[in-house]
Amino acid sequence: MITVRIEHKIASYEGWKKAFESDPINRKQSGVKRYRIYRPVEDPNFVTIDLEFDNLEQAQSTRSALLKVLPRVEGSIIFGAQVNVLDEVESKEL
Fold it and tell me: What confidence tens digit (pLDDT) does each residue in 20-67 have?
């Protein structure tokens, strides 16, 4: 499984969620199969988003699209965004 992981500080969850739900990169058309949103228990003004893909090309294309969109909201809705493409190399149920 290929994952695009986005991590950044946020001004407010409600404002960020509204922007996320507007879906400026059209996640479904971009090939996103599932997404997960995480917030650290000790820091509610930080989010990690995992976008899951079937193939690397879709993930890389989505990362490029995000790198064009994120600067538009940097400093107002989000702060210090990092976007990485991850390849799951092992997973095991215990």
Answer: 999 999 999 999 999 999 999 999 999 999 999 999 999 999 999 999
User: Do the Cβ atoms of 1 and 59 come closer than 8 Å?
Assistant: no
CA-based nearest residue to 10, from 33, 39, 31, 35: 39
Q: What pLDDT is recorded for position 58? A: 97
**Residue 70 corresponds to which tokens in the numbers above?**
């994120």
Token digits for 2? 């290929």
Which two three-digit tokens encode residue 50? Answer: 């995992």
The DSSP symbol for 1 reads -
What are the structural domains, with CATH classification, of the chain? 2-87 (3.30.70.100)
DSSP 87: E
Give how far Cα 54 sits from Cα of 2, 4, 12, 49, Å. 6, 11, 31, 17
